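Researcher: I'd like a structural prediction for the single chain below. Treat it as a standalone chain; there are no partners to consider.
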Amino acid sequence: MENLFTQYQLPLIIISTLIGGIMAVIVNTLRVKATNRPINIKRIIIPPLMMSTGLFMFVLPIFHISWLQVAEAFIVGALFSLFLIRTTHFKVKNNKIYLIPSKAFIFILFGLLIVRLIGKYILGQTIAFGEMTSMFFLLAYGMILTWRLAMLFKYRRLVRKNGSYFD
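Model: Treating it as a single chain, here is the predicted structure.
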């Protein structure tokens, strides 16, 4: 099976890159639409919970990586999330909490995508496809989880500050 991945590594990288670009456009579109609806705890925590189902990929041996690689990927993802955390803000309107759309979000999202693509291209020449896939999944998961936890703390602080519960 690993030989099959090695044989088709370049097409797989190209296809996964295209899928990543399409997903980035979808995420941005959904985020812009989300600013029109009030935010709540459920809408903050569901994305990382849903994304956690991707951890089932580690059942297959081709996706196994060392604990050091797990830590590296997750920490890099958490560091990347700092850009998103810094630009994520809320506002209270009509006693409801809304996400303030950030003009920087699209640039941050595509900037991170470009950094990820460059990293994938460089690492793809020395790391097997399955390992690379695992590491980039954990990077993305570390980024989303850290960002959403920071959003949750900001949201809860705003709820406490206003003395009411918005959900």
